[in-house]
Amino acid sequence: MQFLISMHINPAVLDALTDEEKAAIGAGHGAFIEELKASGELITTQALVDPSQAAVVSVRNGQPVVTDGPFLESKEYLGGFYLLDCEDRARAIELAARIPDAAVEGLGVEVRQVMFADGQLEA
């Protein structure tokens, strides 16, 4: 089964962390990635740039309209994700709880099963 574990960040929360806390989060992700590679459960992981660097694209009257910045006015934004292939939802939740962000007040980690990939519905 495939699961997407998304990490929701709040830039204000991250800015309030000490350099040591930020380094610990980075090191924790590095160790987590190596463990997932060793277990064969990691499909991919990506981190995203700050939402201030985002572009929102919509089409109006057949023409693309591009605006800078995040789509929503929100304190939290998608900061990155892990795509995993693991036994079941319980295992995905177990892994999500080991992501360093889950231990930081004001940050969130969400687990969602992949419904389909490459056009094929999952069982």
Give the SSE layout.
Blueprint: E1 2-9, H1 11-16, H2 19-39, E2 42-47, E3 55-60, E4 63-68, E5 77-85, H3 89-96, E6 108-113, E7 116-117, E8 120-121
Antiparallel strand pairs: 1-5, 1-6, 2-5, 3-4, 7-8
Please summarize what this structure is.
The protein has 123 residues and is of the alpha+beta class. Helix content is 28%, strand content 37%.
Q: What does this 3D model show about the protein?
A:
The structure is a single chain. With 123 residues, the protein is α+β, with helices and mostly antiparallel strands. 28% of the residues lie in helices and 37% in strands. It has three helices and eight strands, in the order βααββββαβββ. A four-stranded antiparallel sheet has the order 2-5-1-6. The longest helix is centred in the first third of the chain and has 21 residues, at 19-39. It starts with a strand and ends with a strand. 11% of the residues are buried.
Structural class: alpha+beta
Cα distance spanning the termini: 8 Å
Strands side by side in the biggest sheet: 2-5-1-6
Order of helices and strands: EHHEEEEHEEE
Overall average residue pLDDT: 89
Main sheet: strands, sense, barrel: 4 strands, antiparallel
Helical percentage = 25-40%
Estimate what percentage of residues fall within beta strands: 35-45%
The parts where pLDDT drops under 50 for at least 5 residues are none
Number of helices: 3
Please compute the radius of gyration using only Cα atoms. Answer: 17 Å
**Strand runs, count:** 8
Keywords:
alpha+beta, 3 helices, two-stranded antiparallel ribbon, 37% strand, 123 residues, 28% helix
